[in-house]
Amino acid sequence: MAFDYTFSRIAEGMKPSPIRELFVMTQRPGMISFAGGLPDPAIFPVAEFAECGDVLRDDGRVVLQYGATEGYRPLVEQIRRRMEQPLGRPVAPEEVLIASGSQQVMDMIARCLIDPGDVVIVEAPTYPGALHTFRGAGARFAIVPCDTDGMRVDLLPEVIERCRRETGERPRLIYTITNFSNPSGACLSLERRRSLAGVAAEHGIPVFEDDPYGELRYRGDPLTTVFKLAEGKGVLYASSFSKILAPGVRVAWAVGEPALIRRMAIAKQGMDLCTSVVTQALVAEYTRRGHLDRHLAKIRAHYATKAAAMAEAFHRHLPAGALHGLEPEGGFFFWLRLAAGDSTRLFSRAVEEGVAFLPGPAFYPDPGETIGEPADGGPFARFCFTFAQGDEMAEGARRLSRALAAG
Ligand SMILES: Cc1ncc(COP(=O)(O)O)c(C=O)c1O
Question: How many CB atoms lie within 10 A of CB 17?
Fold first, then answer.
C-alpha cells in the first residue's frame, strides 16, 4: 500500500496546467497541432549550436563547476549589451538575473512579492503559466480586459480601486505581456504603455513586463518598453531564449532594480542554486559569435511566411466568417473569435477530426479566484502558426472546417 502523504494546503489547491493536460491529447499519432506554443524545430540552429560546444573544451573547468546564482558572467555581459537599446540605458550587472526559463522568473517574483491572499492584476486573456505560478503562491486575480491594443489601461485605476475596496489592500503586482501577447497576439500601444507606467507609479504597484516575443516582429516598428518609459523604476522586465533560439536550453533573463534582483537571486538559491552553466555558456558563445542575430533575421522571415500560410489556409478552407480576428504583426499566435458556439466544444470535435488548438477558457482565471467581474474565454481559440509543417496548414484547416460543420 502506498504511503499516505499529507499534502500542504498550497499543494492541495494546485490544479494541473490545463495546457499541459490538453497537450497530451494533441500528441496522438496523426494529430495536426496548432495547440502548443512551440517554435519550429525544422529551423533550430543545430549545427551552429553544436559548434559552440568548443566552449566546453576552452573553459570546461569553469563551465562544469557550480556557477553564480546571478548568472554566468559572459552571458550576463551579452544580455547587458543586448538590453541597452530596448531598456533605454546601460544596464548594470547587479540589475541582471539569469533564470532557468522565464517561467522561473515568475516563480521568483511570486516568492518575493506575493503572500497568500494577495491580489495580482492580470490582463485577460493572459498566459496560463503565469496564472499557474501566481495561483501556486496563493494569489487571487483582478482582471483588466484586453482589446487589439493590449490591456485596457484606461480601466486599470477602477480595478485598483475595487481591489482596495474589497480587500483593504493595494494589488501587489501588475502582470502584462507587452508584445504579441500569448494568446491574443496584441501589442500594448505606446500611449497605453505610458499610462501603465504612470498609473502603476502613482499607486505604488510594481509591473512585471514579460516579453518573450518582442524580438519576433514581422511588420511595423518596435514600441518602447514600459521599463524604459518608467526609467526602470518599479518595473521588472523579462525575456527568454525559448522562442528566439530553443526552449530546450531553459535560459531566460530578468532586468530590474538591484534590491529586487537581489531578493529574487536569494529565492533562486532555494530553487536550483544556479541555472545550468553548461547551457548558459553555450548560449553566451552562440550569441558572441553573432549567430543569434543572424538566426533572428531568419526566423522572422520564416514565421512571417508561416503566419501568412495559416491565414491563407483558414481563408480558403473555413466557412466565411466562422472565425475572425487580426493577423498579428509578430509572435506565435492567432487569437480568433468563433462566430457561433463554444471553443471547448469545438476543441473536442476538432481532436476527433485530428486537429488541435487551445480553447479560450485556458487563458482566463477561474471565477472563484477573481476579484470583480470574471471574464469568459468561451468564444475564443488560440492557434499557433509556428509549429505546423508544410501542407499541415491546409490539411489542419480542412479538418477544422469539418469540426465546425459538426457544430
Ligand atoms: C508570455 C510567456 N511568458 C513566459 C513563457 C515561459 O517561457 P520560458 O520557456 O522562458 O520559461 C511563455 C511560454 O510560452 C510565454 O508565452
Answer: 15
